[in-house]
Amino acid sequence: MKETEEYQPLLAGITDREGTELCAQLRQELVDDVSKTGGHLASNLGAVELTVAIHRVFDTRQDRLVFDVGHQCYCHKILTGRREAMATLRQYGGIAGFPKPVESVHDAFIAGHASNSVAVALGMVRARQALGEHYKVMALIGDGALTGGLAYEGLSNAGACGQQLLVILNDNGMSITPNVGAVADHLAKQRLKPQYLTFKRYYRRVMNSNQVGRKVYRFTHKVKQALKQSLLPCSMFENMGFNYVGPVNGHDLAGLTRAMRYARELNEPVLLHVKTVKGKGYAPAEENPDAFHGVSPFDPATGKAKKKSGENFSAAFGRTLTRLAQQDRRVCAITAAMMSGTGLEQFQAACPERFFDVGIAEGCAVSMAAGMAKQGAIPVFAVYSSFLQRAYDMLIHDVAIDKLHVVLGVDRAGLVGEDGETHHGVFDVAFLDSVPGMTVLAPSSYAELEGMLEQAVLHVNGPVAIRYPRGGEGAYRGDAGPGHAAVLRRGDDITLVSYGILINDVLEAAELLAGEGIQAEVVKLNVITPLDPELVLESVKKTKVLLTAEDSAAHGSVGERLAAAVAEAGLTAKVLCRTSGDKFVTHGALSCLKQELGLDSAGIFRAALEEVRKDG
Ligand SMILES: Cc1ncc(C[n+]2csc(CCOP(=O)(O)OP(=O)(O)O)c2C)c(N)n1
Ligand SMILES: CC(=O)[C@@H](O)[C@H](O)COP(=O)(O)O
Ligand SMILES: [Mg+2]
Fold first, then answer.
1. How far apart are CA 577 and CA 560, in angstroms?
2. CA–CA distances in Å: residue 328 to residues 447, 458, 465
3. Distance 294 CA to ligand 2 centre (A)
4. CA of 64 to the centre of ligand 1 (A)
5. Element housing 386 (H / E)
6. Which residues are annotated as a binding site?
7. Is residue 149 within a helix (H) or strand (E), and if so which, with residue range?
8. Residues that bind thiamine diphosphate, according to the entry (predicted)?
9. Please, which pLDDT band fits residue 207 given cuts at 50, 70 and 90?
10. pLDDT higher than threshold 80 for residue 53
11. C-alpha dihedral over 370, 371, 376, 381, to 10 degrees?
12. N or C: which end of the chain has fewer CB within 10 A?
């Protein structure tokens, strides 16, 4: 922001009544927009008044508002010049579903993964101090995100720093499913406490007035703190060095704005505790906030999805794991706040005593799994690929060094579509391969997933991961059996290699090539770590051209490893590796992303055709 521009919160001029009307209008827009595009509805409905209050009090062109997860930023986007663009939300070429500094000066920071906002905001406070600047810094964090350890690392440092930093806690009692853990219990108790804010405001006004000198103020402040601590149980935030304000009703715009204005003037770490209702104002979402956390397009009149969601890999995983747990009492399931997304509802209902939701705490989940494995249980942690990135060290240190039998169900592996760059599961192939002793299995159908999960749980020793994609299986319904790899189609002209869901596109490409008179040999890998290149090398000896296709990052890809194996075997062959590349992949429908990356059947076909024709 230029120095000449004035400090001007976007909604500074509106009255409480106008603001309340605006909130009703925003709710309507949210339901209309998201019913067409899909997206994170319930969290946004709950944060309407909060967002309006923030924009009444803060100028987010210069004040820095750091969203945690960022799935609740839709009203912020509407209010900061992206109202029309909401029609393109999460679509290829449209605006993102999460805050993005490249989209707007009002988006202070990237978001998508939970629990980092306080640490990021603290970094901004440090920079402000170092550079002698004067803007305000805020972190907007949900109670679910507060179950992640990183949040406490941020709070611990922020509470001790003594600088202006406003942490706004949006507490709706919900993560995606009801929130878990002792901190959630603590917040629930705080929510029941009488509002303390009114007293504090009155006290400060009187004590700051000319009638009372600063000495008296300081003395009475101490008395007040002592009284408060003996009469009211203290919030954990006060013990961590924050001025705790609240709890405040997050749907009373006038009260919320007052609290925000008050908090804005405090030159210290402040935690504003706001109580909200997830899904507020739209009955289907209020009644079923879990189902309306993230939705596909739906009919706004009924809340019913426009397309029925069918069977998917997550459900197949959950069903198989439940069967295995019913057969073997050592089998336990762990989730990091993603029970429904990872298909574990059935497990939770069937074996509640062996189901553990640790909250948004992937590191804790992996370390806990290590402890369980050490003592003879068989822990299975079902986790989205991109969230597993959080637990890389725990995997190496707590699991792999002692070769513990921990099973990872790596869901959402590969491209995920509309959530975009923060959520694509394109790094696990590389980072899991770098862990000594790791086995990584890559099923391409439900049948293979079931077989491989059974193998991983009951027959593999040491750490083992099974990676599978978002959504359902394709035309390939085979069961490749227990081997490392299988030849699915014979041919002499080119070797096509893939694994997981992309085998469908590769098989289609082989069919298109056959139409051009080119016979492709298709090798499907079942185990990608440790990689056994034997079948691929045999094929390449014959075809002299190898094309690998995977929806994983270029560096550390299976293609890279196969290219090295070809070179090591002294084969003269052309090797072409198709991957998701070495850049972050944007958001959009899977079909668009695959097309952009040349990973759909047409793209693979074209690349293979060009290579073979060049060669021949
Ligand atoms: C590291 C990480 N793990 C899991 C998730 C998936 N996730 C997205 S939102 C969410 C729940 C967040 O709850 P809360 O912060 O209370 O926000 P609310 O939706 O209730 O507004 C979860 C688990 C994530 N984004 N990041
Ligand atoms: C915001 C977030 O991290 C989750 O809500 C995520 O968007 C869920 O993704 P799925 O739709 O693939 O379950
Ligand atoms: Mg919540």
1. 7
2. 21, 9, 19
3. 6
4. 21
5. helix 385-388
6. 71, 112-114, 143-145, 172, 282, 362
7. helix 149-161
8. 71, 112-114, 144-145, 172, 282, 362
9. very low
10. yes
11. -50
12. C
User: Quick one: which of 471, 170, 168 has its CA closest to 310?
Assistant: 471
Distance of CA 49 to the CA centre of its chain: 24
- In DSSP terms, which residues pair with 378 in a beta bridge? 331
Task: Give CA separation, 532 vs 118, 464, 561, in Å.
Answer: 45, 16, 10
Task: Report which protein residue has its CA nearest ligand 2's atom 8.
Answer: 294
Assess whether pLDDT exceeds 90 at residue 24: yes
Cα–Cα distance between 127 and 477 in angstroms, integer?
55
Q: What's the distance, CA 337 to chain centroid?
A: 11
Exposed/middle/buried for 236, CB within 10 Å: 0-12, 13-18, 19+? middle
Residue 37 alpha carbon to ligand 1 centre in Å: 20
At 224, is the pLDDT very low, low, confident or very high (cuts 50, 70, 90)?
low
Confidence of residue 197 (pLDDT cuts 50, 70, 90): low
**Residues 382, 413: contact at Cβ < 8 Å?**
no
pLDDT per position as a tens digit, 580-596:
999 999 999 999 999 99
Binding site for Mg(2+), by residue number, is: 143, 172
pLDDT tens, residue by residue, 438-469: 999 999 999 999 999 999 999 999 999 999 99
And the tokens for 375? 């003592």
Element (H, E) at 269: strand 269-275
- φ/ψ of 109, rounded to 5, equals -160, 150
Residue 203 — pLDDT band, cuts 50, 70, 90?
Answer: very low
The binding-site residues of ligand 2, defined as CB within 6 angstroms of any ligand atom, are 40, 69, 71, 293-294, 341, 412, 416, 419, 470
- The CA distance from 174 to 290, in Å, is 8
- 39 C-alpha to center of ligand 2: Å? 9
**C-beta of 40 in contact with ligand 1 (< 6 A):** no
Spell out the residues 6+ positions from residue 214 whose beta carbon is closer than 8 angstroms to its own.
none
407 lines ligand 1 (CB under 6 A): no
* ipTM of the prediction: 0.99
Q: Whose CA is nearest to atom 5 of ligand 2?
A: 294
| Predicted structure pTM score | 0.94
Contact between 156 and 240 (Cβ < 8 Å)? yes
CA-angle at 175, arms to 169 and 176, nearest 5°: 140
**Helix, strand, coil distribution of the chain in percent, nearest 5:** 45, 15, 40
What six digits make up the tokens of 436?
A: 């000594």
DSSP 511-525: HHHHHTT--EEEEEE
Residue 19 tokens, joined: 């603001």
Which domains occur in the chain, in start order?
16-193+239-287 (3.40.50.970), 197-231 (no CATH), 313-467 (3.40.50.970), 485-615 (3.40.50.920)
What angle in degrees, to the nearest 10, is found between the helix axes of 48-57 and 253-264? Answer: 40
